[in-house]
Amino acid sequence: MEQGCQLIQTREGTRIYYRQRLPAHPKAVVMICHGYAEHSSFYVQFMEFLAEHDYGAYALDHRGHGHSEAERGHLDRFEVFLEDLDVFVDHVRELHPTQPLFMFGHSMGGLISFNYGILHPGKLQGQIFSGAALARPVGTEYIPTFLFKLLNVVLKRLRIRPKLSGKTTRNMAVRKISDGDSLVLRYATLGFFYQFACRGVAFAQEKAGRYQLPCLILHGTGDRLVPYQASQRIFAEIFSRDKTLKLYEGLYHELIHEPEREEVLADIVDWLERRVKFC
Fold it and tell me: Whole-structure pTM over 0.85, yes or no?
């Protein structure tokens, strides 16, 4: 297995960090988009699992997260995540000109991936969503849009610390690692959450009918951060003819870290295997 870490430069000059795990002969490639309060190292075991099944895996650190550049915990435009991701996708395509490209997005990364799929359906062969933030995250859902927008004007730089402890996964080992990781965002500005939870989510919900990629939507019914009903609603609204929704009874937000993760991982590989045959 080939391992490595690299930096790529976005169109406006920000350096974005990514890591890779590659088998000798990948049958396809999976690009991974992490969520808020994460970075690419959270996905190393998942990447190695994919490589063991002959899938190449690439995971980036979103700007302002992990090892990537840009101001930490602040965002002026949600669209910049999509622009960065487009540079990353084009880079991976240059490295793998003939292999099918898939994308895995978790939580905020699922929202970024979904919006990217709406805008650039021709660049991917399919997407997988895990606990995707396709609705307002818990704690923001009752803030009226007009008030959120007003607060973004007058208190854009107000720092907020979401209460995530104990809500992400029942896996105590993963929680301990996350709690001690100096690269994990503990705070973000109100402006960040306005761009993510208001503007990014609004785009996904308004444009869901345009989404047409093959997709696998996964969610735990015990998710305490993003309600699983968000995935049910999006599943009903998207235009895709090849779409699958699976709910895992009682599982928390981070499905690939839950005690039952082997079932989740098996479902992901099974879905990929069935699609690669026709690419």
Answer: yes
